[in-house]
Write a structure and sequence with these properties.
It is a single chain. By secondary structure, the chain is an alpha+beta fold. The protein has 5 helices and 12 strands. It has helices at 3-25, 111-124, 164-170, 200-204, 224-236; strands at 42-45, 72-77, 86-89, 95-98, 102-105, 132-138, 143-148, 154-157, 178-189, 192-198, 218-223, 244-248. The strands form 3 sheets. Strands 1-12-10-9-11-7-8 form a 7-stranded mixed sheet, with helices on both faces. Strand 2 and strand 3 form a beta hairpin. The protein is elongated and about 60 Å long.
Length: 251
């Protein structure tokens, strides 16, 4: 997708989100109903953070890289020339093929688990006490989408410790037209589509925590048209102390 297409998608996405969030302002004094606050399409959540994909919050929020299909790895077995600094690419099932070890399925394993499994198969191939190091060269299977008013919208590989600020930096930073008060994260949380509206400028000042990113997150950095749509809502619920969390109901 071209940069122009990405930005067109971003504007439509943020504008749509803004319209839904504005619905909450007209019902902020009403109790929750079965349809959710603001109607059946969006439910505001009384939370200070966007949960992880499995619902984890607080100190439980973290992402550790796991090997997936087509990821590029570097395998090094100490003192074994044919397995020294060997570059391999996982197949569609997340498996690699190596001398002595044969086919080794590493799909969804952490780096530490991959080291242990590869060492186990080398021992099964009659190699005594193999000292194995598996390292990531490039992740293809795990990525986030950075869209909207950033210099280089697109999909970016994700590794452990990637946060919202680091994700925007990976996309070469926000453009001159970006409105940092309107940064949205879309995430699937335990089967539900959730969104969070962040003030990136406030995060940069340390006002609240820089959120952790997970594979398949979509980040949209807003622009001035969305600022006009969100002005009423932001004035009622400013984002400089915490993000706005909501659940989408697309049924």
């Amino acid at each position: 997708m071209s940069q122009v297409d990405f930005r067109s998608f971003a504007k439509a996405s943020v504008a749509s989100l803004a319209a839904m969030l504005l619905l909450t302002t007209t019902a902020c004094t009403k109790s929750m109903t079965s349809g959710g606050l603001g109607g059946s399409t969006v439910t505001r959540v009384d939370a200070s953070e966007l949960p992880g994909p499995e619902g984890q919050v607080g100190d439980a929020q973290h992402y550790s890289y796991r090997i997936g299909p087509y990821d590029k790895l570097i395998v090094d077995v100490l003192n074994i020339e044919q397995l020294s600094d060997r570059r391999v690419t996982a197949d569609g099932d997340g498996a690699i093929s190596l001398p002595v070890a044969g086919v080794v399925n590493l799909n969804n394993l952490s780096i530490a688990e991959a080291n242990a499994r590869l060492a186990q198969q080398l021992r099964a191939g009659h190699m005594r006490n193999p000292r194995v190091a598996v390292n990531l060269e490039e992740s293809v299977s795990r990525f986030v989408t950075i869209d909207g008013e950033v210099e280089q919208p697109g999909n970016y590989p994700i590794v452990g410790g990637m946060t919202l600020m680091r994700g925007v930096a990976a996309a070469k930073g926000a453009t001159d037209f970006a409105k940092l008060r309107e940064v949205v994260i879309h995430r699937n949380v335990k089967g539900s589509q959730m969104i969070a509206l962040y003030d990136l400028a406030a995060i940069r000042r340390g006002a609240y925590t820089d959120p952790i990113l997970y594979p398949n997150d979509i980040i949209v950095v807003g622009d001035s048209p969305s600022r006009r749509l969100l002005q009423q809502f932001v004035s009622i619920a400013p984002l400089f102390v915490s993000p706005l969390i909501a659940v989408l109901d697309n049924r």
